[in-house]
Amino acid sequence: MLKPLRQGLPPLDPEAASEAASCALPARYDAVREARRFTRSTLGHWDVGDRFDDIALVVSELVTNALRHALPAELPSGAGQSAPVRLHLLRWTGRLVCSVRDPSDESPVPRETEDDFSAESGRGLLLVESLADGWGWHPVTGGAGGKLVWALFRLGSTK
Questions:
Q1: Which end of the chain has fewer CB atoms at under 10 Å, N or C?
Q2: Checking DSSP bridges between strand 95-102 and strand 19-25, what pairing results, if any?
Q3: What is the pLDDT of residue 81?
């Protein structure tokens, strides 16, 4: 298990952010499309410069990972309509954090680089690492359980 990573993460207090938005996502794979739509709409109102496509792609990967790996294999009847995953976008001057909250206490595990590169899945966190300026995760506090996986982007400059 990876230890929680916190380096480079600004405070997640929405009061300190110049812009903040979030949306609840149901336990269905079409939630990835909804997350992309929400991200594109939100970022369209914010000045994120040339990072727009990188941020949208990372959000897709983080939400996909939450849906694939952080939800129970068998959801209770009707649970597909509930929203166990939540996407948060927070912008400060010069940086943006996208984070995905899910109900699992398990740490995200990047696939080993020597794995089959022709595989159609399994490299999402490697993609996040290559596009974002930093990423990590930490447990959700306050007894709610789950974790928050985040990616940090510096705005106004390319990586």
A1: N
A2: unpaired
A3: 47
